[in-house]
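[job 0412] stage=fold_complex status=start
inputs:
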Amino acid sequence: MHIPDGFLSTPVWTSSAVISTAYITFVIKRLKKVLQEKLIPMMGVLGAFIFAAQMFNFPVAGGTSGHLLGGVLAAVVIGPLAGSFVLTTVLVIQCLIFQDGGFTALGANVFNLAIVGTLGGYAVYALLLKLLGGKSAGKTALYICYGIAAWFSVVMASASCSVMLALSKTAPIKIVLPAMVGIHMIIGLGEAVITIFALAAIRHARPDLLERRQAL
Amino acid sequence: MNKKYLLGIMIFCILLGVTASFLASEYPDGLEWVAGQIGFLTAGEGKEAISSPLPDYVFPGIENRFIAGALAAILGTVITFFIALLLGKLIIKRNRTGE
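[job 0412] stage=fold_complex status=done
writing structure:
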C-alpha cells in the first residue's frame, strides 16, 4: 500500500507531510518522557521483523498480493506511540533505500500506515478489549481482539489511502474506495492471522512483554 | 532481552527476508492492482522524487538476481534493526542530559 510519487496531488501530499511530521514530533516528545529502556531492543526487533515480513507478499484472490502491515503487532508489544514510531522508521528506510513508497508520498504513507494503521488499529484493539472485559478478558477474547483490530487496521488504512487518491483527483471515490477496501478486507485476513501467530509466539516466549498493559 | 535471544530472532528475521526475496508473490499489491484496474498506475511512472541505492529490494550490479535480492533483504533487515534501536536510544538519552 506504499503510495509512489505521482499518485497524489501537491496539496494532498504536502498536507500529509505536515500532519505526519507534527505527529512524529509529538510522538518523540512523548516517548522522551515515557519510553522504557527495556522496550528498546523490541523496537529494533519489531522494525526488523516488520521490514522482512513486508517483503513477503502472499497471493490473494487471484491476481493480487498482500503483505503484513504490522501496526497492531507493534502497538500491542511496545505501545501505540512507540509502535507508530517503529512503523515510521521502517517506512522511511523503505522509501530512502529501497524506493518503496515515494519520497513526496512519505508523509501520506506514514499517515495511512503508521497513524491510521497503527494508532487506529490499536484504538480498535483497546476498545474491543474493554468491551470484552478489559483486564479480566480471557485468552480467547484477547486473541479475538488482536485479530479483529489487525483486520481493521488494514481496512482503515486502505480507506484512508483511497480518500487521499480521491482528494488528489487521481481516482473517483466511488470507484477507488470500494475497490481498495474490498481487496484489503481479504488482505486483512492475512494480517489478522499473522498478527495472532506473532503475538502468540511472543506470549509464549516472553509473557512478561505483554503483561505490562502500559499506556503508551 | 538477552543477547542470544536477540540474535536468534534477528536470524529468523533475516531468513524471513531472504525467503521473501525468493518466494514473495510477484502479483501486484492491493494498491497497484487497483491502480491498474482503474487506470492510474502510470501516474507514478517516471515521477520518482529521489533515487535510491537498492530500488525494488534488489542489489544493483549483481548478475545473479537471487543473490541480489537476498543481499538487499539482509541489508534492509539488519539496517532497520540498528536504526530503530539507535533511535530508541537517542530518544531515551534525556535521562542523562536532563529531566
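[job 0412] summary: Chain B touches chain A through 59 residues (CB under 8 Å).
[job 0412] exit 0
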